[in-house]
């Protein structure tokens, strides 16, 4: 394909566009084709929700654009109800995994290089190649350790860690001469949702882990002086969206989640009580003492708060919350810089267009008693499950704003002729909650077809296009990529919603300039060129006063520099823009005058859940598997009980 769409965007966007979509100038210089991009809003859910008055008055207000342009999506190793609900509410049709010509892909895994080479400029996928280098715990440790060796104290925000079995000798040597063995958090490198986490307190336990674990395990020093709120330990989930790694462009959502341990904290119990020491929501929600917040207007109730509510609480205690958030932004930027070269190399090797990839990360951070934030881990495809009203409100906005930053183009002619693998039609199913396990049978494909199906031409059943399409792509040189992103940033006020752009910024850029230069192995200077384009200032023409490491030491040393007034005037100067924008994190989001979104994910009308026949069949197979699992589990438990009883009886008889 020779035409590279999305190269050049004009900044003529109107915030009052009646159809909630925008028109920009495309990159095809010969035709200056106008390309429209979707704009997503949580409001769309109301118009396809069962029982909502808007769905009766104007059910096609948001779905018409997706239906008329045959917009399609597919899910790969993901079944996120929130993602599907948002896309359904805009008239998108869900296709099977075999479909290769969809507009949008939401995956809970990474694609290999051969697959990535098949992606075309108008498609969008929610992962960058090799971003797994920070979302796998062992790889995060390795990358941050390398950066710490190279940039010293600038990277003093990650607990001392070891990967077992690789670092077993280093661990033994590190703690052999210490009088006491510090507690360590043990986490399987590839696990999530708190699975496999334990606290170990002696080297013998390390030997046991090494002997029994089949995969790598990360051991991190336990932070024994956490900052407590109401006597409880907590951590923060921050939502970060990246639209480019080179040049690096990063947005952080202006709110997040504070997850509290269920029980009050103390460090004198031998670390045997999980609900005191672990803040993982996936674990704590099973405690009988867990308090769920069912009131979306109260952000500081129970064991899950919003970050903004937590910041307001901390501000009342006299804490400089703006500086605290700037320190967290600094952690996010430095973590992403640690893999900038790797991701950029993978993008070049796969020939991906500049707008194809975007990524939503979940950064988990813990604050110690000195108000120093520590990075715990970075999550691939952070959970979008909506277990409470706060989850529904927050995560729906996070997802919609992320999709808006991704800029999904509306291009009918690109997928209308070859939409699905096989000769399929759009179909609908009568079961109104396809994410729930139900004993109701699914309507047959023939009986559930749309009365006005979209017809598709027959095509090969190969799951992806052959990679030779890569050979015909017009290459993107650094200047062209920078022009794309510069124009996207010019338009961000219409797209970013509740996100705050934390990089690049005019002044803080200079704090990271030396890192960027040393990591730019190809000397393309894309970050420098973007800065020059945005601010009409050559970053190479400015010499930072003093040693830049001194400014980073002030950011890292929260014990000595607790407040902005404790920082040097030079450091404050670099951080001023970030400090000013940090007020956005503390702002109350659900006060009177601000829009309140639905308290929970709604049940969608069947007509809104458009799926191809193969996708309906796949959903039916999954539903049947879930039903079977629910039926088999009690039977297995009963068999185990009987077997156990028989063994006990046998043991008694043998003793008699």
UniProtKB/TrEMBL annotation:
Residues 148-407 form the ATP-grasp domain. One of its GO terms (cellular component) is ciliary basal body. Keywords: ATP-binding, Ligase, Nucleotide-binding. It catalyses: L-glutamyl-[protein] + L-glutamate + ATP = gamma-L-glutamyl-L-glutamyl-[protein] + ADP + phosphate + H(+). Residues 1-26 are annotated as: Disordered. SUPFAM superfamilies: Glutathione synthetase ATP-binding domain-like. GO terms for biological process: microtubule cytoskeleton organization; reproductive behavior. InterPro entries: ATP-grasp, TTL/TTLL_fam. GO terms for molecular function: ATP binding; metal ion binding; tubulin binding; tubulin-glutamic acid ligase activity. Belongs to the tubulin--tyrosine ligase family. This is Tubulin--tyrosine ligase-like protein 5. It comes from Panagrolaimus davidi. The lineage of its organism: Eukaryota, Metazoa, Ecdysozoa, Nematoda, Chromadorea.
